[in-house]
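In this supplementary section we document a worked example of the pipeline. Step one takes a protein sequence of length 153 as its only input; no multiple sequence alignment statistics are reported here. Step two produces a three-dimensional model, which step three serialises into structure tokens for compact storage. The input and output of this example are shown verbatim.
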Amino acid sequence: MSKTNSTEAIQLDAMDMQIVEILRGGYENHSSIAKTLGVSEGTIRNRVQRLRESGVLVVRGQIDPEILSAHQLAIIGVNVAEAKLLDAKAKEIAKLDHVLSVSIVSGRYDLMVELLVESNQGLVRFLTETLSRVKGIAKTESFLLLKSYQKYV
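The serialised model returned by step three reads:
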């Protein structure tokens, strides 16, 4: 499966959006989605495959982090040394262990890094042993997520 270049825009029609909305609510098989939308199972299979191959849709199991008692969700605000490094640093950080997502943002920070670590000690290890190896980071600030609603990882 080859993904479409991320700079290429893909046009989603109404049926594509309906399929995505159904899948956001939880796993549904192709047959069930087809019945809901009044089309053939093959149509849904082909559309889901196209959406996945283009990188528009990712289907995966997620869990509520509230049930992971030995884990800690955290967000790290990151400032990079030079604006021209934003994209490269975001991609580099996104590949690190424990990182769930990295976003280039506006405001006080350049990047927001979301991660799931084992306890507060896992956060300390991530900051001191993992993130510290990424060159070009000027400053970080960590935020522990104490309670989340409708959050799955």
